[in-house]
Structures are given as structure tokens and as C-alpha cells.
């Protein structure tokens, strides 16, 4: 069946702006959108990457002011594994389905060369699952649990000497797949002077290696100023804690040391408040949108190109999805026909080879049979001759025996007469 090319009607590009003579009511669309979103709830997925013991779980508990009851990870795993846990959270009337994905065993192996591979495979698997849902004939995207990762919190070990090679390699592999926010874990182990130098060195190394981290958007006037300021604070130096300490009349989340107390939500102690403000309260929706519009779109485009779909043909003319499908279908049918012909020819050749092999075997069997028949005839003839010889020998033996007996009898009779 040949595909029919139909030229789509071209719409006029001129647009006129008209004035309304009275109130219509579509100015309530933003409110309708908000109500619909609140009713459906929101989804947010966080990927935590970092070596075991850097406080990833503790920071998550601190960020969302709850206890996710995560179990500690061992240090002796042979490979990196990703474990995702989904939680239902509610604040006021807003419901949030939060998924926290942890990289168990990351950086614990002697050979860390392929540590990033499990992470890349996991991210691609979530993109692929969403793409397959999109390509279904009967889709249910509204009810589908979107597991695509919206942000990657990359925990940097507080060495004060710069990034490790595993950090640079991993972030470089992920910067086109997820929004990366680098953070310095356990920042209370570094002095303020060393911390500023450490931050500068990290940013220099990221820029030198072409690693693109997530930048808070500055195109929205309402948040451009604060986002621009916060971009200069990246990477955030954070401290997390599950303990609460009473300081004055307040009970605060803090870490108690012999020399003093580090308050998690004190901006002069660490950047925890800045991270929470940027991650949750200001830019969560931007990260969700960027994941769909940039990272997923890049993956989708690449996958569809691998499947053979394209927007334009060799002459740079638009190609519809149906045309591409028909071309792929025709090529697939031609390929199947070619394979069928090849298999048929192969089958015929194998039958011929088998027939020749059977004829050769039959010929050998006939030759063996003739040889056995000849050998049998010769053996029978030999045995017959041997039997005849034995019979002749027997007759001759009996004759001589009889002659000997008669001679002996005659001799005996002669001696008797003499007596």
C-alpha cells in the first residue's frame, strides 16, 4: 500500500490584538491551574551521589524535616547499586510524592573506573520507561509514576584539596542527563578560610573539565536577584543532623561538639538554609521543567533517531511520522523478505548437502555389504573345501584302518595254523 503525501494547509501567521469590551473570565486560568495542580499533587525525585558515610541520608532528613528511617550502607559492596525509596509527604494542602535514590557502595571499590556506569544506566532506564509510556497507543501519563530524576545532589568529600577524578568523571557523564548541584558534605570539618579556597578550586576544576552544573534561573524577575546571588555560593557547604539541641529558649537541629555547637539552620555556620531555599522553596518547579524540556528531550531525540525517525528527509523537507513509519515498515518487510529468501536458499543448500551425504553413506554401505558378501562367499567356499578335505581324510583313515585290521587278523590266523 503506497503512502499518500498530503500537503498540510498553511495557516496565516498574522495575529491581531483585540480589546475586550467587558469581563470574560479567562483571567482565572492561573487559579484553575493552581487548583488542578494541588489536586493532582506533585512529584519530585532526588538522586544522592557520594561516598558511603558522607551524610546523604542525614541531609535528606534535615531538608524535609522528617525521618526517612534509612538503613546504613556497608563499605564492602563489590559494585555500585542504586536504591530508590518513595514517600508521600503533605504540607498544608499540598501533597508531594518524593523519591530519594541513593548510590549504595559508590566509591568503595578499589577499581572506581566504572562507578558512574550504574548511575548512568539507572537514569537512562527511567527516561526509557517514560518514553515507552509516551509511545503507547493507550497512554495514561496522568496516572503514571514519573521516576525521572529531577536533581542530583553530588556530595563532595571535604578534603580541602579539590575534586577527585571519580567526581569529575561522574559529573561529566551526568551533566547532560540530570540537573547537578554539587555540595560539600560535612562542611563543619573545614575552617572558613579553607572552605572558601576549596569552593573556588572546585568551581575552577569543573569549568576546566567542561562540567555543566545546574544554574538557578535568572530570567524570572521575581527570583532573578536571589538566584544570581545563590549561583555564586555554589557548591553549597552543608551540615546535616538528626539531633536537636536546646540553645537558649529554642530547640534547634544541630551537631554538638566538645568545642561548641554547629547549628544546621544558622547561615553563618553552613549553607544548609541556602540549599533548602534554592532546592525546595524557589526552584523545584524549574528543575522539574528543565528535566522534561532539556534532559528528557535530548534522550528522546537520540532514541527516536536510533529508531530511524527524523523530522526532515534528504532534501530537508518535513517528513510526517506516518511517512517515516511507512518507510521503516517497507524497509523492515524488505529485510524480512531478504532474510526469508536467504533462509530458503540456505535450507535448499542444506537439503542438497544432506542428500549428497546420505547418498555417499548409502554408497559406502553398499560397498561394505558387497565386501562382506564376497568375504562370506569366500569363507563359505574355504569351509566347504575344508569340510570335503576332512571327509576325504576320514574315508582314507577308515580305509587304512580297515586294511590294518585285516592284515593283523591274517597274521594272527597264520600263527595259529603253525601251532
TrEMBL record:
InterPro entries: G_SEPTIN_dom (IPR030379), P-loop_NTPase (IPR027417), Septin (IPR016491). Residues 40-306 form the Septin-type G domain. Residues 397-419 are annotated as: Disordered. Residues 403-413 have a biased composition (Low complexity). It comes from the Eukaryota. Keywords: GTP-binding, Nucleotide-binding. CDD domains: CDC_Septin (cd01850). One of its GO terms (molecular function) is GTP binding. Belongs to the TRAFAC class TrmE-Era-EngA-EngB-Septin-like GTPase superfamily. Septin GTPase family. This is Septin. It comes from Parnassius mnemosyne.
